[in-house]
Amino acid sequence: MSTNPVERQQGSGSGSHQVLTFVLGNETYGVDILRVQEIRGWSAVTKIPHAPAHVLGVLNLRGSIVPIVDLRMRFALERAEYTTVTVIIVMSVNTPAGRRDFGVVVDGVSDVVDVNSAEVKPAPELGSRSATDYIRGLVSVAERMVVLLDIDRLIGRDLALSTGVDGEEALAASAA
Amino acid sequence: MTVDLTQFHDAFFEESFEALDAMETALLKLDIGSPEPELINTIFRVAHSIKGGSATFGFSDIASFTHSLETLLDELRSGAMPVTVALSDLLLKSVDVMRAMLRAVQAKQPIDSQRVSDLQFDLEVAIAKKNEPVPAAAAPAPDTAALATAAGNPAPGHYAAEHDIPPAKSPRWRIHFHPYRELLARGNDPLRMLRELAALGDLEVRVDAQMLPPLADVNPQDCYLAWALELPGDVAEDAIKQVFEWAEGDCDLEIERLPGETEDPAASAEPAPAAPAPTASTPTTTPAPTPAAPHAPPPAASSAATAPSRPEAVAKPEGSVSALGDSGSIRVSVEKIDELMNTVGELVITQAMLSQLGSHFDGPEAEKLRAGLAQLERNMRELQESVMRVRMLPISFVFSRFPRMVRDLAQRLGKQIELKLTGEQTELDKTVLEKIGDPLVHLVRNSIDHGIESPEARVAAGKPAEGTVHLDACHRGGNIAVEVSDDGGGLDKERILAKARARGLVGPNDSLTETEIYELIFVPGFSTAEKTTDLSGRGVGMDVVRRNVKELGGKIDVKSEPGRGSHFTITLPLTLAIVDGQSVAVGTETYIVPLISIVESMQLKATGVTRLSGHSEVLSFRGDYLPIIRLHELFGVEPRSRALHEGLVVVAEGDGRRVGLFVDDLLGQQQVVIKSLEANYGHIEGVSGATILGDGSVALILDVPGLIRAASMLAAA
To answer: Is ipTM strictly over 0.90?
Structure first.
């Protein structure tokens, strides 16, 4: 799976690219399909100490240890029960330290849609920039608003919380 | 049919390089004056097998050189020549030359023949010197001499029959079969082999009974006979080789095709099968009489043995039996191992799934099913362990190159240096191992060149004249830590800073912390050495070190104290390493405590614990008082019980401190593969990594020193 920053920028540049959309509460979010490694059902995770609350723990993904983030908690939404339909989307994130895999827990996966980059609107500036800087833009697909996420920034922030120095570098680099 | 020998070249080079390493190690261990025979034998075997191999492949320069070397070594082996410092230096140089030659041949580049012939001359001189009146003159004649003479002019009766064979009209196979004495002891029966050959076609047999001793001296378990055999040319060569398949390494074997009238003899001459084996000799070689010779050399030692013009490629069977050929290992590509590992990983999870499923069944067959599943589980575990071990190698593979390097550098720089190696058995993944070598070489070189002062300067500074370079490896916090430290002068902060300012790397008014200053040495092109030596000081090095380490996902730290030495720590993540662990349960979580840090596990009585002022609990253990770390508190897990006497305490040790870890239960001991948490997440204090349990779930591996740090931070907070 090719996931380099160049491709990402091309994605946000011109033309259309594919986006995987998923549901969290009442909102629909989207991530670049090229970043999606796999989609799997919920299974119990192993807790990791001293982690931010939204980092639920780690899972074994075919031999590698992958941290799992609860996006509901990440976005300070109401917590939901994990059921058999709860889904984990495993994505790859680019950090200065290299590619890292992360799983995010979402309520459900909806669709893969083509998004024309010209139609992506920037997120309105509301309050502090840091609260929304992981939003790449908004786009409406079939009457619904989809929030496109910049997972490098979203997860880069988690790295900052979990690893200190490395994460700060990651954050600085991704903010640059 | 011609065998394409080039297909064996790679194996030959690889084996030869390894053998040279072994030879070097042995040379360094060699005591001047009273050399251990086994070491000399090791050295000899290397020279011998490289000679055999290179002759087989037609690398005549190497063969010729190793031949001279071998002759010299033989003198050592027979005790005719004492081991001196000069000689050991000469031999070490020979190792270098051989390596250089092999590299050149491997890269298909010309050999530096001047260097080779110079050294070869030195070797010849050394051999010749021996024959001058030295105390060793009375020693038994060198067996090479005997062999050389014997080989040079075949003794009468030896293969006398050979010349009687009428020139063949049609092509024929001629087979020279010289079993070593031990052939019978190794379970080979020449008679059976002859019978098999006879079955292939019209077999002509001539026996060479020359070596048969008087009846009284015959050891019935030894083989004294040799044979010259002929078979019709239409017999497949493979079929002939097959007959001798099991005797390879126990005999000298030549299979020659005698040309018919139309055949070109050069094209059909072929070396023996399994050519890379050191026993193989070229078709042009006259085989040495028998292995008996070296042990009972005829007294007719001639100084001809030392004459440089002696015919080359005298095959000598002894030593080759235990040479590389039967070292009991095979070469496998890393990809194959990785594939195997992945498959086994998947199997383990499938097996765990089956076991769970099996527990749901009832009925008469269910018991058998479960027994079978239990068996499967055991086998799986063993399989997994074995496969994982395949990839791991002790770091001694890298460390072993340093004694030689340090010795040479110290000699060249006129410094006295002791090299200390510890933690050599620390196992790490082969890929990491291969890449850590060069950075370490740079660091050690730097320590010797810049770090350790001259003996005079050391004495003047009140330090022992002999400096120490210490290489250490250990598993630490899910990483491999490799440390290179010296007790030299340390890094000169002022000079580094001055240099950086001169180069414009640092502004004139910037003030830097100590760490920042040390960081400067990793800047490309930065060097503080006042004079550039051929060792270091050219400004390449530290930046390369840093880059290599970073490529492995590791980091390098510097500590230095003026006058006391510097200390480089390379920390590398363990992509793969195995730890013997004890699984412990805390609430619903499973953790692995490395067995190496466990002192003892025990159950506490309700009264066994003292509560010190405030909060901390202390347990009395063998006259000591140990702080108790409640894992559930540290990790924020809900335990089964908070009462100390209802759980267990694992007494563990880290960084020289002992603590009691309070857990709910002990689960079992097993070897686990350390998986990095940092690959996708980050470092967690007190956790060295994670592992995947049989059921596919993840368990964290605890890092006891880290736990102690984390707990004391918690206590201090």
So the answer is: no
